[in-house]
Amino acid sequence: MKGEMKAVMKKKPGPGAELVTVPIPKIGPRDILVKIKATSICGTDSHIYEWNAWAQRRIKPPRIMGHEFGGEVVEVGKDVTFVSLGDHVSAETHIVDNKCFQCRTGQAHVCQNMKILGVDTDGCFAEYVAIPEENAWVNDKSLPPEIAAIQEPFGNAVHTVFSEGVEGKTVAIFGLGPIGICAVAICKAAGAAHIFGVGRKNEYRLNLAKKMGADTIIKSNEQDAVKIIKEATGGYGVDVALEMAGSQEAINQSLKVLKPGGRMSALGLPEGDITLNWADDIIFKAVRIYGITGRRMYGTWYTTAGLLKSGRVNVEPIITHKFKLEEYDKGMQLMREGKCGKVVLYP
């Protein structure tokens, strides 16, 4: 397809981004071109926008930002076989080589040569995006585009929660950003016995976590989360700890509240090295720790689609703000302040 499109681009190193006009992407023989109907802002996008230490190491401007979207296929390459014109799609944002040891042994989500949409390749904060056919997830056409867009981060929460079962178990979720709040809703739908939501003093997100099913909300900067959870569980601690914050404090607390023989799944990303009481909190307690990245390809997507179709998880309350693509600055400001759930942009 020929022509031009508007896009949000990190044109040069430093804070901020720019709305630009660029050529519509050309596609290769195994690629598809998607007209974006809705795209949502991720914490990664916020880091790129603010130009934190991670972004400075990883991003090579110019780069069109964004990786979460719902859209319609408007062009397909000559060798495309299972995606059709008019399909409504989202994207598995991990672009893998399908050749390395991990890809060939069912672990493509940790491919040795992975590229990430909107990080290593141009993304979807635009009117159109080009992706490999194999990265397309075909949605039911009745699925609203904004919900199609947030399946990618919702899938992160699905992967974290279901690294083992949570049914009938006590669960503590540390970090109540949008993905942590998604995890609350998933645990509720899966039949967790009691859900503790632990977050900093952010009334907006604490209230949203409560609305999505957290039984007990704890403000970690005002309350002793470890003491409260231990007392509420008869001194035993929880069966499952989900660490979604990536802070030294939250990681330590996750391990402290975990009962012996329990399970911790960690999705949060610390900015630097952390210290642990390896002997007392891990070895002597015989806990299991799962490092979580992305989504299992493509098992997590099937679970995500099933949860949404079942109606057991209503993600609409998690989408709290909607703007035109040109108003991306407003969305980034809300993300910075934490006064939002998921922010959706419409080209």
Textual characterization of the structure:
The chain is α/β, with parallel strands linked by helices. The longest helix has 13 residues. It is built from twelve helices and 18 strands. The protein is 29% helix and 28% strand. It has two domains: 179 residues, Medium-chain alcohol dehydrogenases, catalytic domain (Quinone Oxidoreductase, Chain A, domain 1); 136 residues, NAD(P)-binding Rossmann-like Domain (Rossmann fold), CATH 3.40.50.720.
Short overview:
This protein has 347 residues and is of the alpha/beta class.
Topology:
Elements: E1 4-10, E2 18-23, E3 31-40, H1 43-50, H2 53-58, E4 63-64, E5 68-76, E6 88-91, E7 94-95, H3 101-104, E8 115-116, E9 128-132, E10 136-139, H4 145-149, H5 151-161, E11 170-174, H6 178-190, E12 194-199, H7 203-211, E13 216-219, H8 225-232, E14 238-243, H9 248-257, E15 258-266, H10 278-283, E16 288-291, H11 299-310, E17 319-324, H12 328-337, E18 342-346
Parallel strand pairs: 11-12, 11-14, 12-13, 14-15, 15-16, 17-18
Antiparallel strand pairs: 1-2, 1-4, 3-5, 3-9, 3-18, 5-6, 6-10, 7-8
Helix pairs in contact: 5-6, 5-11, 8-9
